[in-house]
Amino acid sequence: MKNYIATFCMAMIALCSCSGEKFSAEALMLDPAAFVTEYEGKPVALYTLTNKNGMVVQVTNYGSRVASIIVPDKDNNPVDVIVGHDNIQSYLNTASVSSASIVGRVVNRIAYGKFSLDGKDYELPINSGVNHIHGGPNAMYKHVWDAEQKADNVVKMSYFSPDGEEGYPGNFNISVTYTLTDDNALILEYEASTDAPTLCNPTFHPFFNLHGTTEKSSNSHIYSMAADYYTPVDENTNPTGEILPVEGTIYDFREAARVDSKTDAGYDLNFILNTKGDKTKPCATLYEPETGICLTLYTDRPGLQFYSGGNMNGYEVGKRGGVFHKFSGVALETQCYPDAPHHDNFPSIVLRPGEKYTHFAKYQFSVK
Q1: Residues forming the active site
Q2: What's this model's pTM, rounded to 2 decimal places?
């Protein structure tokens, strides 16, 4: 039987150093003052989460965006594993507007920006070739969320999307609670509701580079994924509706392998997770031998978008002067399947009044 998840990432959940020296993230922490501004009449700030081990996560309420995740490497040196920027103006002006934010109402593509719901046709703005992507060009990742820091290790972000925003029906409320645990996991817990039938499939859209710098390719990372099947796409990157086995293809990462070991073209595709909504089972791992850092992902979502950063073509300069080179970050996006409204065999993403949408994702860090 295939080894779906690399066991080396599960060997050490606690981040620690053989030397016993206390870990400090201070050298890489972003300056909160660089994130203080007002946008659309609302205050923007940077919120810092810490745990007893010294791990740090920093989140801004502009787009409910994770600006940094600082963990120790195998030598107890701090490494910021999130690709991004060190100030709010860069995020406001950036080309990669969805980077490390909460995207939606619907992540990924809706073919040709059209869908029907309860007999009514809707048209959405086109912002990716012939398609609508990530909720539109002015979706929730481009707005200021309400923030409430509940504890040193917890912050809750909330956003109200009015009826008709980016073409979606219904007044829509969403919140995401970020919790940094003492076993070095970042947990995201989503809740959403609506007063009219709508579509709901949000996600967190981080780019991870376990080197801690975009000057080194994330193609060197070792990746594994518990997925026997994937959803192929057409020439417009829309799902065909087929569900195909990964066996014998470049999409088979059931055994751990370098990201670029099967193709140099990169990946941007949805995979059907074998975990079937069981959030206690790991669905994917990402490991960098040079730093020893391992990320293990858990979720209750049925799908995972694996994107290896092929469109990162040097168009931006981020934290510490790092250029966003091609393949300088890996995105792992927990989700329902893309373009679900056009495929009856895909899980529904319709949310109705009286229903509560929930979504769980855990990003567990360890070292080897």
Answers
A1: 205, 333
A2: 0.94
